[in-house]
Amino acid sequence: MGSTSDFSRRDLIKRAAALGIVTVPAMSALSACASSGDGGGEKVEKGEKSAKNPLAVNDSAALDVVIFDGGFGDKYAKDAQAEYVAAFPKTKGKVKLASTQKIQSTLQPRFNGGNPPDLVDNSGAEQMDFGTLVSKNQLADLTPLLDAPSMDDPNKKVRDTLRPGVVEMGQFGGKETWIMYYAYTVYGVWYSKTNLKKVADAEYPQTWEEMLAVCEKAKKKGVAGWTYPGKYPYYLPFSLYPFIAKIGGAEVLRKIDNLEPNAWKDPAVKAAFDAYYELYKKGYVLKGSPGLDHLQSQKAWAEGKALFIPNGSWVENESAQQIEKNPDFQLSVGAPSSLSGSDKMPFGTIWASGGEPYIVPRQAKNVPGGMEMLRIMLSKKSSQNFIKQVSSLTSLNGGTEGLKLPPGLDSAQQALEQAGKNIVNPRIQDWYVALQKEKIGVGALGEMMAGRMTPDEAINKIQKYADETREDSSVKKYQR
């Protein structure tokens, strides 16, 4: 789900949607055509393994990389590409890096033909379905990368330099790691401290009662409390899912991820849905939000037409043009407000996880080269370059030493520190993309927040969707 100019992660995208919902039909074609064989591309010969070349990269072989051109852009990847060529000078002129917003339609023919790139940033609205890729044996296991020495400290394996949970996110019920999430995203309720103080004379509301009071004050001044991208309502879970966990405990999200019967009928889900629906009923949502895409809703919010927006930490980079018009914007992220004193988790509970998912296709010609490019990207130098360019953390644990972080990223860092162990990481959006985006998001949450469906109706519909997915033998199931 990563950050995007076409879908916000994303990435959710983790790294995050803009061109419409195409995941299922396109991936059904991939499912039908993808082979579990080695395909037609010839593998390059491995190079000589050494301390400087632990993955045995062929030092003169071509490398083919495709990057999702979203909110993070591709300059950080081009800078890492230059580092790769510097490490392997014989590859000069042979390292190809292409950028596209249409990952699926661009790469599906190549996967089907057995000639995929060596490294892919699989993100955006046309993100390829990971469950299908894994079940069709289309991805290389990244364990050799994780067990290789890190660029900065050869005494540390790459896996030991990563933030907690990053490796597990790339796994699908086994020991193999299929995905490397490069960015590290903090999700929540984003706001301007300056606008909040100016409009409602308030700090971030730590209780839902305070949230409603702030929204009422804003309404009286002609400012909406909330907005969201109604065209892509699967942004709502960025704050809604941790809200559910806060009310009922992380176990509720685990049951939802596992597609357990009646998981969506949990009282915590009902309480959270009722609270969000109240925002609509009381007129606290910006009019026209159901028709806005992510960029339009972010623009309206950044211009002060609404106080709060559910989003990920990529929003600082993606909304930079609007935010920069107000030098005193003071971008910040808030954890879900406490619904009541009986909430199972404390205030500060937040959703944070890897974003901007990278994969090395199993049929790629230069698998070691693709992994080596990732090893370079996970160095402190490349990580700090990414942070400075796009105002987002990476999955490298730490890496911010000596950097002056922009307000939003600094706030995200503080939110992580405040959360401590109370960080949740729903997996449904990774394991069941179509269920999360098209059915839960567009089919239910979007309808509820537009007033076309009650919370009870939305819950019943989502439970039906989840049950259908659980009972569909063509969909591989995962457990946590």
Automatic annotation (TrEMBL):
Belongs to the bacterial solute-binding protein 1 family. Its main location: other. The keyword Transport applies. The keyword rRNA processing does not apply. This is N-acetylglucosamine/diacetylchitobiose ABC transporter substrate-binding protein. PANTHER family: ARABINOSE-BINDING PROTEIN-RELATED, SN-GLYCEROL-3-PHOSPHATE-BINDING PERIPLASMIC PROTEIN UGPB. It holds the Pfam family SBP_bac_8. It is found in: Cell envelope. Keywords: Signal, Transport. It comes from Streptomyces chrestomyceticus. NCBIfam families: chitin_NgcE. InterPro entries: Bact_solute-bd_prot1, Chitin_NgcE, SBP, TAT_signal. It comes from the Bacteria. The gene is ngcE.
